[in-house]
Structures are given as structure tokens and as C-alpha cells.
Structure prediction request, 287 residues.
Amino acid sequence: MQTTVLSADVGGSHITAAVIHPVTQSIVDDTLIRKKIDAHAPASTILEAWTCALIEAQEASGKQCTDLAVSMPGPFDYENGISLIKGMNKYEALYGFNVKEVFAERVKLPPSRVRFLNDAEAFLRGEIIGSNLAEKSQVLGLTMGTGLGAAFFNSGVVKDLNLGSSRFLDGIAEDYISTRGLLTYYRSLGGAGIDDVKSLAEVISGDRKAKETMAQLAHWLADFLLIHLTALKPDAVIIGGNISKAYHLFLPEVVERLAAQKILVPIKVAMMGEHAALLGAASLINS
Prediction:
């Protein structure tokens, strides 16, 4: 039987699912399903929303898939499918829960045909597949959204770096370079009424506090990259995640600050959106 992969990308506030064509490595028409998720809901509510998205995508393809591949944020036991997320302001109710068993039962697959991949690694795998980045021997990928993910592509192999949990300023990098970090800073300036980075970007022309917040992001991101680019020496950096959609508000200053330190590594903005993680996770099946 030909391998057919049902793929999913779990984010801090959504799940996206689709069936991936085994030959073209593209999303099968009309199978893309996206659902909003309340990351603070009870475990049963979260799992029901996740599995409904999987089932709807599979049903849209008109056939049973042979495999399920899931891009999942950490900390997570990717081999056994057990959530270890705790203290991350999301999915606390799933701590210690065997997600693999639930998914296998609902999509009617043996657990051995359900696999999980770190979301930053899946993102970078997908961007490599869908672009000309394979020409670069070493690429650092960052996903900036609910959290901060980092992965490294080196001569055909992608590895999760977990840099979001690395020490940075008075905490870890994810405390600052994330939606949570930006909104915390915005509110510390007296800002209010903003709940996501998209809204923050929309008011920046008339909101001095929003403008200052995005300038602070540029400083944080440049300082973070100064630490890690020296050690990793990538040929390119690619940034993705919801925060990257506002790249025009912070990336020019990041590049300028790096150039001042004689670091001229090209920084690219992800082009594939949420499709990257779907394709990246699916690539795990045939790797």
C-alpha cells in the first residue's frame, strides 16, 4: 500500500491538519483544516479539538491514511508521545498525558504509525523542502510566537536546539522573545487592550508604547543572535512564527545591530507559513 501521511501542526493557540501528497510533498487539495484551541482548557477539550481537526482532514481526502505525523511544541516525549509541557502558560492540563494513544485510537492507526516531531525542527525541515535553502550547508531556523523555537540544518540533517530555554537576561530567551514577552513588556509601559502581536503591530503608528515594544524586540533578538551566531556560524538564518509576520517592524534594526558587530549572516523570513511544519513533520515518515 502506498504511504499516505496525515500531518498536523500544533501551536499554542491552534491546530492545523492536512493530508500530504506522497510524491509531490505538497498538501492535498481541500484537506487543510485549521481550528483555534484554548490552550488553558481541560485535557478532554483540547484533545477533542485536536482529534476533530485530524479526522476532518483525513475525511476530506476520502481515504484512510497510513501514517500520522505531528509537529508538537516542547517539552514533549517525542518518542512515546507524552506531553511534558508545564510552566509554559499553555496545555498544562495535558502534562503526563499520552497523546499518541489518543491520536492512534481516533484516527484508527496503530501507535507505531503515529510519530511526533519538535515544532521548530518541523518548521525548518519544511522550509528546506519548499525553498532553495538546501543549497546552504548550515541554516539556523527560529520560530517566534507563543514560544521561541530553534533548530539547525547541517548538511542534510535538522536538529532541535531548544534555545528558547537557554539563559537570557534575567530568565530564559522565551521569556522575552515570544508573544508573552512582548505583551508583558508592553503592559509594563502602561499599555492595555492588546492581546496578540498582530494587534500590537496594527496600532504601532499611533501607539508610542507599541512602537517602543517592537524596538525592544529588535534589541532582544539581536542580542540573542549575537550569542548564538558566533557559536553556530550558520550560512543563513530563517525566522518564522506569528511574530515574524511583523518583520518589517523589527528586522531592519536587528540586521543593523548585527552588522555593527561585523556579523553579516543573511536573515530570511519564512515564506511557507503554517505549511512548513506540516511538510516538515510529514517528511519524518520517509526519513
Notes: The helical segments are 43-61, 99-106, 119-130, 179-188, 197-202, 208-232, 251-260, 275-283.
